[in-house]
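Sequence, please.
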């Protein structure tokens, strides 16, 4: 490792350049570097869960779904800003859960107007703010995904808002024939299917939990888009396809909550660790496979 890389890694890990800055009773760190945390604090931060047993001398650390970061994981030891991903994931999950349940005709609810409040306030505004904070912590993927889906929920609420924006009535001929509105809304959903597919490709080297979130969401957008474009004999959105979209939406909501919990749970608030399951071809999967091969040999 070059001197510049080593210095950058020391900065990420919160270490200083020499032993003079170490506390009198602090344990000596490897290579003579002075730690900024006690042994107990370091163990509580790194001695458990998805980041345990990580070689901090390596610049490439394994991905972790709870950070909404499919790429390189950055040390949290010197972080000044909290992880915004669980907030954005929770906002997305609750709004998606309610809409998907309505799409599946839960409790015989046929109109999704109750989602307007969630789509504006929680899934829209709060998720958008979480995406902006992802920008602040340097997570390009998280900023793009959370901000985009926050914008999706705001635009979705605008479409459904009765009276105020008058979008549905403007696209309905004579106030009764909604063919143009259904086709327009189907294209709207298919566009989000394309965007989610792009996001899905970026999760292939991440964790299974992180991948499944975008996989289920991708199928939900696809089913809903098809349901509005390919309608039934009464020119209404195709009920079986819409229900299928609702089912995949529910799966996406629970996957989002799962990843949010993985990002929140740590030694300060949890007695258990959330498994996120690494792909065999991911950096962690390859490392585990090489280790098992060496042990069998």
């Amino acid at each position: 490792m070059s001197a510049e890389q080593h210095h950058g890694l020391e900065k990420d890990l919160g270490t200083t350049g020499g032993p003079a800055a170490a506390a009198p009773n602090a344990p000596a760190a490897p290579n003579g570097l002075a730690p900024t945390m006690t042994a107990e604090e370091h163990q509580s931060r790194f001695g458990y869960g998805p980041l345990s047993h990580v070689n901090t001398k390596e610049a490439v650390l394994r991905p972790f779904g709870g950070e909404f970061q499919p790429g390189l994981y950055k040390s949290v030891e010197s972080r000044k800003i909290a992880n915004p991903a669980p907030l954005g994931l929770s906002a997305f999950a609750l709004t998606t859960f309610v809409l998907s349940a309505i799409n599946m005709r839960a409790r015989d609810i046929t109109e999704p107007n109750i989602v307007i409040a969630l789509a504006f306030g929680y899934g829209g505004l709060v998720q958008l703010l979480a995406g902006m904070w992802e920008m602040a912590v340097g997570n390009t993927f998280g900023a793009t995904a959370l901000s985009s889906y926050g914008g999706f929920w705001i635009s979705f609420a605008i479409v459904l808002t009765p009276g105020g924006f008058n979008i549905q009535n403007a696209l309905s001929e004579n106030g009764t024939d909604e063919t143009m509105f259904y086709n327009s809304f189907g294209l709207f959903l298919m566009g989000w299917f394309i965007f989610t597919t792009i996001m899905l490709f970026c999760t292939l080297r991440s964790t299974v939990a992180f991948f499944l979130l975008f996989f289920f969401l991708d199928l939900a957008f696809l089913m809903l888009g098809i349901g509005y474009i390919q309608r039934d004999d009464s020119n209404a959105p195709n009920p079986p396809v819409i229900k299928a979209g609702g089912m995949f939406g529910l799966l996406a909501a629970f996957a989002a909550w799962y990843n949010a919990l993985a990002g929140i749970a740590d030694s300060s608030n949890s007695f258990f660790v959330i498994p996120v399951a690494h792909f065999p071809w991911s950096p962690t999967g390859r490392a585990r496979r090489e280790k098992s091969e060496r042990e069998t040999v």
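Confidence is low (pLDDT under 50) at residues 1-24, 44-63.
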